[in-house]
Amino acid sequence: MKPDDRIYIAGHRGLVGSALVRNLQARDYTNLITRTHAELDLTDQNAVETFFAKEKPEFVLLAAAKVGGIHANNEYPAEFIRDNLAIQTNIIHAAWKNNVKRLLFLGSSCIYPKRCPQPMKEEHLLTGPLEATNRPYALAKIAGVEMCWSYNRQYGTRYLAVMPTNLYGPGDNYHPENSHVIPALIRKFHEAKQNNAASVTVWGTGTPKREFLYSEDMADACVFLMNLPDDKFQTLLGSDEAKTGIFMPPLVNIGVGDDMSISELAETVRTVVGFQGNIEFDASKPDGTPRKLLDVTRLHNLGWKAGTEFKTGLSRAYRDFLG
Predict the structure, then answer these.
(1) Hey, which residues does 60 pair with through a beta bridge?
(2) Residue 161 near residue 105, CB atoms below 8 Å
(3) Buried b vs exposed e over 99-136: b needs ≥16 C-beta within 10 Å?
C-alpha cells in the first residue's frame, strides 16, 4: 500500500477499526476512506455497491462487525449471524466488482472448534463442533473466510482473512452487559473501587484460559500483512484443495502465543485498577470455551511479533476508560 492509495476501513469507529486508522495515520497514509453507520448501512447491499462504485477503494480493511461477549451472543444470536453475514457479503462482493487490489477480512479466534488442539493452527478450521454460546457469530466469520477463499479461487482475487485473538485497548466497548471480558472487568473493578465494595463477582469458575492482544499490536500486524511483497502475500491466499489435496484456507492467526486463566486476568485487572476488595467467581455462569490459544507460527515466520507487554497494555486501556 502506497501512502496515497485509497484505503477503505470498514468499521473505523470500533476497537479494531480505530486502531487500524491510527496505525495508518502514523505511517502517513493520506487517503483513508471511512463512513459511519449513519452515513452507510453496511447491511444494505445497494448502498454498499453504490459507495464502492463511487469511491473506488484500492485496498479494503474489513473490520466492521456486530460483536459482543457471551451475554450478547446468547441474547441476540439472530442478529449476530444475520448482520455479520450481510456486512461481509456485501463488502467482499462489492470489492470484487470494483477491482479492489487486496482485502483483509478480520474474524475471531472463536471460529475454531470448542475442543480444538492447543495451540490452534489455521488448518484446524472446520475440524470439530463450535462453542455453542457464540456459534452464530463464529459461523458467520467462517463463511467470510470461505467467501474470501472462493473468490480467490474463482476470480483470482487477493483476499486474506486474519483471526485475531481476544483484543483490548483504546476505544473498547465498556457496556455493563454486552462487552468482552477485559472491558467488563475494568468497569466492574473501577465501579467497585469507587463504591468501596467488599468484592467483585466474576462470571464462571475462573479456570478457562485466554490469550489477549493489545489492539494497537493487532493493527500493526494487519498493516504489516497488507504490505507484504506480492510473492509472500500470494502464499497466504489459500490452496485449491480440489487440485492440491491440501486444506489451507487464506487465513493467518494474530496473537501473542501465550495465555492466562480468567482468574489470573481478574487479579491483574484488580491490581491495575487499584481495587482492594476480594474476587468471587459465580460458577453458575457460563465459562465458554475451556482454552483458546492461537498458534502464531505462520505470522512469526513472516517476521512479525507482538510488542506490548500485557500489564502495560492493560494500564493504557484503563487510562482510556477513565477518559
Answers:
(1) 8, 103
(2) yes
(3) ebebbbbbbbbbbbbbebebbbbbebbeeeebbebbbb
Residue given cell 509472500 in the structure block: 232
Q: Which pLDDT score, from 0 to 100, does residue 89 have? A: 98
Amino acid at 165: T
Distance (Å, whole) CA 222 – CA 164: 10
Residue type (1 letter), 53: A
The three three-digit cell numbers of residue 308, written as one number: 506490548
The span from the CA of 226 to the CA of 6, in Å, is 13
Average pLDDT over residues 153-167: 96
Query: Which residues belong to the active site?
Result: 137
Given pLDDT bands bounded at 50, 70 and 90, which one contains residue 97?
very high
Q: How far is CA 211 from CA 88, 101, 202, 290, in A?
A: 25, 32, 18, 12
Residue with cell 459461523: 139
| Cα dihedral: 69, 70, 75, 77 (round 10) | 80
Q: Does residue 71 surpass a pLDDT of 80?
A: no
The three cell numbers locating residue 57: 477503494
Q: What is the pLDDT of residue 220?
A: 98
First to last CA, the chain: 33
For 59, the 3-state DSSP assignment is strand
The H or E element spanning position 121 is none
* Dihedrals phi, psi of 23, to nearest 5 degrees: -65, -45
Query: In degrees rounded to 5, what are phi and psi of residue 209?
Result: -110, 140
Task: Return d(Cα 214, Cα 308) in angstroms, integer.
Answer: 7
pTM of the model: 0.92
- Give dist(CA 181, CA 179) in Å, integer: 7
Average pLDDT, rounded, for the chain = 95
Q: Closest by alpha carbon to 110, among 141, 146, 149?
A: 141
Query: In this model, does residue 178 exceed pLDDT 90?
Result: no
Angle at 293 between CA 82 and CA 173, to 5 degrees: 50
